[in-house]
Amino acid sequence: MRRGWLAVIAFLWCGAAFAASLQFTQGTNMGVAVSPDGQSIVFDLQGTLWVMPVAGGAAKAITEPLADARQPAWSPDGSKIAFQSYKDGGWHIYTVAPDGAGLTQLTSGGFDEREPAWSPDGQWIAFSSDRDGTYAIWVMAADGSEPRLVTITPSNEHSPTWSPDGKRIAYVSDREGGAGLYSITFEGVGERLLAPLEGTIAGPSWSRDGKFISFVETSRAGAALRLMDASSTVVTTLSAPGEDVFPFRAAWLSSGGLIYTADAAIKVRSIADTKTKPKTIPFSADVEINRPTYARKTYDFTSASPRAVKGLRGPQVSPDGTKAVFAAVGDVWLADITRANAKPQQLTDDAFVDYDPAWSRDGNTIAWASDCSGKTEIWLRVVKTGAERQLTNLDGEVQKLAWSPDGTRIAFFKAGGLAGLAGGSLHTVDVASGEVKQLRPNIWSPSIVSWSPDGKYMALSALSPASSRFREGLSQFMVISVEGAAKDDKLVTPHPDKSLAMRGDDGPVWSPDGKFFAYVFDGRLWTVPVTAEGDVAGSPTRINTDLSEAPSWSGDSKSLLYISTDRLARITPGGKSKDVHPQFSHKLDIPKSRYVLRVGRLFDGVNEAYAENVDVLISGNVIASITPRKDWPDGTSIIDVSDKAVIPGLMESHTHQSITFGERLGRLWLAMGVTSVREPGADPYEALERREAWASGRRLGPREFYAGALTDGTRVYYG
What we know:
Layout: E1 8-14, E2 17-24, E3 32-34, E4 40-45, E5 48-53, E6 57-58, E7 60-61, E8 70-74, E9 81-85, E10 92-96, E11 104-105, E12 113-118, E13 124-129, E14 136-141, E15 148-149, E16 157-162, E17 168-173, E18 180-185, E19 192-196, E20 200-206, E21 212-219, E22 222-229, E23 235-237, E24 251-252, E25 258-262, E26 265-269, E27 279-281, E28 283-292, E29 307-308, E30 313-317, E31 323-328, E32 331-336, E33 345-346, E34 354-359, E35 365-370, E36 377-382, E37 388-390, E38 398-403, E39 409-414, E40 423-430, E41 436-444, E42 450-451, E43 457-465, E44 473-481, E45 490-492, E46 509-510, E47 516-521, E48 524-529, E49 541-542, E50 549-553, E51 560-564, E52 567-571, E53 578-579, E54 585-586, E55 594-602, E56 611-619, E57 622-628, E58 637-646, E59 650-652, H1 664-671, E60 674-679, H2 684-695, E61 703-706
Parallel strand pairs: 6-28, 55-58, 59-60, 60-61
Antiparallel strand pairs: 1-2, 2-28, 3-4, 4-5, 5-7, 8-9, 9-10, 10-11, 12-13, 13-14, 14-15, 16-17, 17-18, 18-19, 20-21, 21-22, 22-23, 24-25, 25-26, 26-27, 29-54, 30-31, 31-32, 32-33, 34-35, 35-36, 36-37, 38-39, 39-40, 40-41, 42-43, 43-44, 44-45, 46-47, 47-48, 48-49, 50-51, 51-52, 52-53, 55-56, ...
């Protein structure tokens, strides 16, 4: 059985909902604590806290299934259990009684708190928090009041544990040149280095008699449970070679033994006899998963009826406010937006991927990215004459194009190792000479840039990490000095402690008059006054109520074009939005052919054994029948593969794709036998464009299924 997965599954029908009862007898990455009287254990499994007798047995859930409750710590009087939870979209400290009553949130706000530890007298809780921009050790009263900062260094300090006399707190520090286990007094003075260590340290736990501190050290050799003598600081290893110890605080018993988690189990071992194998404490945890019944989406793979094009990527309004340019079904289109349902003009017409079109400020030229030359480059088209030319010649994918106000340069991103997913390096290209200049080497998953009217600054949405300990942070406005260095870049935000929307096309977009940023926040369109240098100069204002994406300003700064779910709309700040969606459609590419595959061996994905000597009838784009070998009417096309084994097309069940891979992406999937891809996280408009281009036959590719944008919580990492 794979570790961390269920041991027993029972399926039950309960009314209109489907209920799956899962019994877990193993788990990975579990935190554990022991009650002060030594009679009970609390542990976290599947984001829930469970309590059971110390000898093991059936565990009782004491927190709700979706609380993401982790790293429990039992109060000295046994009345409460402190833990960290992601219940409100960020990591905060909670307490709950051992029977599940009295759930209380102790911390809140736009920062994370983790790893609670009770003082021996039960009056205080130590924890780690990034309230000051880096993780540090804090203490607060047991009711959540009187928070105090204990450690003050630029490094990350975390995972606190109290000495039995309550005078000192041991913790982990990752400081450069001095990483290891430290201790400090409750008042935040007298810091001492207890053990300098090279590996990654987690879960220190002071013994009840104060003689030892246990901790978990992870290195290339694996994870090991270590024991440090508090008086001599000599470190020994408790765990066996190859034992997969989880990086959390161990629980000390009054006998001097340790309860910890490793190898998918809860274990107990003596520190005096390390040669004896640890005992496993058995547990069972019954989880009920209620899945409401609902109408499944129906997929039509055979209808030849026209289908409205919905996958519009990167729409931009023309400077005069009358037209919109966008990418859809693999090409670049131009639409009249002075009226709804206008038929768009197709500007490019090929099987390659054309995307991220951008207007020059004078409205005379459109730039876009295309792989029609074999790799993704920037192309230009004069609007009046239709004359086109390739501008760049780079060995790499380009994306997110933006013209400078004077029309002499185009800013763009050159993809990094993860192509479009990572964003890459920011460049400009001179429109006259084609000379490329790099402005910034690496910006993780940024938005498209927007120039200030004087061309001195660029604004974009970028990740502002909350600390160096974890990768997550907030999406904020980054303002870049075009002629300055990276050290001069600044992050600003009109929404402290909150993240902006998707960074891809959601702003900030600098108004041509320089007075406002437009952007998407909480799914709606907002504006905020800014200075000439890009600093926030006033309060933000929400200007619409419909879901919004990809805003762009008209040249007079009086209106905005944006996507509202599957429609293009425009709005004047202070006015009402107006539907300006163009009218055009695509059809499924359904072959008219009909033929038989004469198969020697067929694996159908249902039966364990091969079906032998069968005929597979292909009609259009579906398998019409699978029958034993037989005679077919005269004229039937028969392809003899009787010396081959045939399988259904493969489904790639988890992939994240990028438009910057170009036309080759679909052909590569098919070349590997993949005929369906499942994308659980993608820019929804990019994924929809990809699906419609493949389905219509505009580009060769598999069937596409996608689930929309990647979501993280209050803090984000991906764009």
